[in-house]
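In practice, a research group might receive sequence data for several interacting partners and want a quick structural hypothesis before committing to experiments. The following worked case mirrors that situation: the sequences arrive first, and a predicted assembly follows.
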Amino acid sequence: MRLSDLAPAQLRARCHGGGLRFRTGEFSICLQTRLTSVIDAVALLYAQFPLLDDDAYIDFPIVLERPRNVRRWWRPQVRFLVDGHAPFQPLPLDQAYPMFEWGLNWCVSAHAHGYLMIHAAVVEKNGRAAILPAPPGSGKSTLCAALVARGWRLLSDELTLVRVSDRALVALARPISLKNQSIALIRQFQPGVVASRPVFETQKGTLAHVRPPSASVANAGQTCRAAWIVFPRYEAGAPVRLAPLTRARAFMRVADNCFNYSLLGARGFDVLGELVDAAHCYDFSYSTLDAAVGAIEQLAQAQP
Amino acid sequence: MNSLSETDAEASAWMLAHLAPLLVRGWDNEYVVYARASGDTHLLGAAAYRILARLQLARAGRAALCAVVAGACAEDERARCAGLTDAILTDLEALGLIRPCCR
Amino acid sequence: MIAPPLLLRALREPQSLRAYSLAHWELLVRQARRANLLASLHETILAQGLQDVVPAAALRHAEWARTLADKHAEAVRWEVQLIGQALAATGVTVTLLKGAAYVLAGLPPARGRLFADVDILVAKSELARVEAALMLHGWMSTHHDAYDQRYYRRWMHELPPMRHARRMTVIDVHHAILPETARLRPSSDKLRAAAVTLAGDAPLRVLAPVDMLLHSATHLFHEAELEQGLRDLVDLDRLLRHFGGDSAFWPALAARAQELDLQRPLFYALRYCVMLLGTPVPSAVQQGAGAPHAVLLALMDALYLRALLPAHASCTDAYTACARALLYLRATWLRMPPLLLVRHLLHKALLSRRAD
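A structural hypothesis for the assembly, expressed as tokens:
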């Protein structure tokens, strides 16, 4: 059963009560909140995600609520809690749904050390994945959304997870976050894209989230291997360029983009070494999404 | 003469800084090295890697390490070998990967 | 009164874990995580051979925590090595305290433990030399505020914590195990004199077993913030089980507590280890000197038997927050005379208002 199988009143009742329980790929969530903005966004963007029974094991029990103090009404705020613990300062109430997404990212990156976790987007076609590691400003989420719009499976726009036990790339398939101009760009690129309403003036600017394709969600349990590691950089007016990168240098740059490379120690070295060993690595600059997607497509077709 | 150069060689011998073996992966003459003791990861060129590989076997003096570096150098660079070796040894020591034996 | 939390039952009778349902495991993992004992729970699971019995969904959370703890232990070893190198030239004998001591001495509390700072003990006369050597090797003092500097140097028992500029690791350099201003004044000279040298190259020492136990007990029962309280109690439990196998340990412990005037903290440590964790302590030792009079004891029980539970919603009742607050005041009172305490609390209150 999926979220979309629940009538709005039922979905709301679960959020208000014992919690809305669902799975996002590798992790199970229980969400309790009375905030309409969150419930509406989750109903829209997680429509295709599988519901869980009441007795299913929940990895992250999440609550989004208004503070009990004066900030409940005066310049209202929202708090994010996981298992009763608030890892962040409250944010303006308007940012409740983005806070849910950021909070969930934090839950994974702060705890899930059974995976090498790379701050990167990862998409897949024909069983082979492209990892797009991402310092800020690289445009990775926009590029990720564009690739997904053109048929690539979404594993994640933010958290690339390599399972240490078997080196498999695992999926979360959660909504893709877009900032500022990217929102309009993707609407142009993919007319009819389903997205949350933009939230203004967050720390990252204007923010909106795009619904993942049903196929990506349905196949979230499917693992794959990385064939390419591509470091994207948006550069206004620049022609598309894929410059091969040596594997040793790619290794160091991916390590720099990891949440827990150091924490994993020797195991992290081994997992990353194997990842890089099996992949072709590139620096990638682009200025238009069409050209960028085209170049990645060519890459996928050229290398058997 | 002989004993002087032997003492000289001993005095400038090098060894790995820690007992725990280093983890290494290499592609196209570039290497990434993980040092278990410190948890640090380093990117090294061919010459530096060869020095480490040589020291993994046993401690070695400057002359032996020069020869190792020469093996990694192109013909036209061999003249600069001694200087290059010294520079690499300084860097590797600064990274905490090697240390002089007799200090 | 609160029913014994799952986590305590698991610690007291690990074999009972075999019968836990998925829901039990889910709650146990959450309690353990809040108490900073999840990696430690993983150690218990392995030690009891329960890997195949624990549901995979729960086991992986424990494994994730264990990965973090293992990294911490590696990092502590490396940090201690670098500290040893930095201080080698000073000729100062360094005694490791708490977590770093457990790791380097290979003691049971080290397994599955998370570490923050490295704590060392040196003679008061050596503080300046130690501080200088550390600064030479890249450590910098924190707490630059004049009040804080005075707080640490004049009134407390340590230098302000020093952070390494590149590694961002922190070292706490103590010259005593309690502040100068505290009511109890256990002799640092005696502690350092009895310290045991560790096997290996570096001249590192740890406290003698009875002293290590007394230090841990003193630290916990002078601790203001009790979020880590259960973790510290588990350390004590493990030390007691480890050293207690030697029958000579118990009389030596009682005698040393008397000699160092630490009978009261030892009394509480033994009492709550027995009551909460079922630690095997000979009854003669439990009933030894150090007990407060009955009314005070009843109050301490009411406070500590709440405050030492995991900091998780399932382990609190209406009085838990109040218990923690009262023990915070008690600990601060124990560490400072009243006038100084008032001044200190006022300063902190003003500071936090300014920060808002």
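Before designing any experiment, note the following. Chain A has a mean pLDDT of 95. The longest strand of chain A covers residues 115-125.
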